[in-house]
Amino acid sequence: MGRSPCCDESGVKKGPWTPEEDEKLIEFVAKNGHGSWRNLPKLAGLNRCGKSCRLRWTNYLRPDIKRGKFSEEEESTIIKLHSLLGNRWSKIASHLPGRTDNEIKNFWNTHLRKKLLQMGIDPNTHKPRTDLNHFLNLSQLFNNGILNPLNSDHLKLQAEIAKLQLLQNLCQLLNPTTTIPTTINNGLQNPNPSQFQAGFSSSFMSVMPGDLEDGDKINKANLEEMGNFDYLLQAENYHPLPPLISESPDGSASNVNQIESIETNPLCFSTNSNSPTASSSIFDSLESLMNDDEANGSYWNNILR
DNA sequence: AACCACTTCAACCGCCGACTT
DNA sequence: TAAGTCGGCGGTTGAAGTGGT
After folding, report:
1. Nucleic acid strand B within 7 Å of A42 CB
2. CA-CA-CA-CA torsion for A244, A248, A253, A258, nearest 10 degrees?
3. How far is the CA of A29 from the C1' of B19 (A)?
4. Taking the C1' atom of C13, which residue's CA lies nearest?
5. Which of A169, A173, A166 is nearest to A277 (CA)?
6. Quick check: A14 CB within 7 A of strand C?
7. DSSP output for chain A
8. What nucleotide is nearest A3 when CA is compared to C1'?
9. Residue nearest to nucleotide C4 (CA to C1')
10. pLDDT truncated to tens, each residue of chain A (305 aa)?
11. Which residue's CA is nearest to the C1' of nucleotide C9?
12. Beta carbon of A6 within 7 Å of strand C?
């Protein structure tokens, strides 16, 4: 069954709202409430469709709208809720007083999504991106206090390890029997590589539904229906985001684009190294990484040669 | 100053579910 | 139960803004 579009009348104005239109809408809603959005434009003397009026009111004119930058707390809340709810922006917005679904959606798409990608987290699943686990498990070391995100030496060390782990991945793809000696971890209080395998999600997202098992105290099935995620926002359940991983020695994000390209070309880091195509992609990526580093001291060249 | 590329965000579009007839 | 209406939602678009050259 279809439905007729609400704005099929010709001559209905579209595009940005003028201050006069805003004034009319505010005045009308203040006096009468919005009632039926479909009838509102006619009653308010607006040459707009009801849908447009509703959108303008809920996203912009509503008196309880909170404008301005998102706080860090709001940011964390959005990320947490998104990991539970996905792109259900209105649900997420209901936990952020004064914020609209549209605003949160825009904020997610323009800021948070990129931020998670830079951290190597898949913004859809909130899990480490495939074959980049080694990068991300470093956050475990920060979370359990072995590394301090405020310590620049530790940050440098983190970057070094990330690169060596990438190198190890590459070597293993080219020759599955090759491993980088564990001595690369010298300098860490806990050099055991298995530390890195501990898993990112368990430390960072300790309360994610994916980690809940049947019979857990928290009723996974009912969580969403109840719409009560407040427990997530309680201090004891709150785990701050790990810092961004620097991919170059100077901490710049120059290699973020590499990660992006890896994402769009899964073969580059495919665990199936039998395919010639996969191998050639690996070499391409390697070459590209090395070329990129020409600008910052041939870092990769030094490692790889 | 002019051009271009990129980012941001308000607004639109089409679909869906709830409700009514 | 089917058909129709409506509000709401999420994806997408494009104008405006910004920064770099």
Report:
1. no
2. -110
3. 24
4. A15
5. A173
6. no
7. -----TT-STT---SSPPHHHHHHHHHHHHHH----TTTHHHHHT-SS-HHHHHHHIIIII-TT---SPPPHHHHHHHHHHHHHHSS-HHHHHTTSTT--HHHHHHHIIIIIHHHHHHTTB-TTT-SBPTT-HHHHTHHHHHHTTSS-TT-HHHHHHHHHHHHHHHHHHHHHHH-TT----GGGGTT-SS--GGGGGG-HHHHH-TT-GGG--TT-SS-HHHHHHHT--HHHHSGGG--PPPPPPP-STT---TTHHHHHHHHH-GGGG-S-TTSHHHHHHHHHHHHHHHHHGGGGT-HHHHHH-
8. C4
9. A3
10. 333 445 555 678 888 999 999 999 999 998 888 888 888 998 999 999 999 999 999 999 988 888 888 999 999 999 999 998 999 999 999 999 999 999 999 999 999 988 888 888 888 888 876 544 444 444 554 554 545 555 555 555 555 555 555 554 554 444 443 333 332 333 333 333 333 332 333 233 333 333 333 333 333 433 443 334 444 444 444 443 433 333 333 333 333 333 333 333 332 333 333 333 333 333 334 334 433 333 333 333 333 33
11. A90
12. yes
Show the tokens assigned to A248: 């170059």
Q: What is the pTM of this model?
A: 0.55
Q: What is the largest CA-CA distance in chain A?
A: 76
Asked if the Cβ of residue A220 lies within 7 A of any atom of strand C, the reply is no
Residues 156-175 of chain A within 7 A of strand C, judged by CB, are none
A105 touches strand C (CB under 7 A): yes
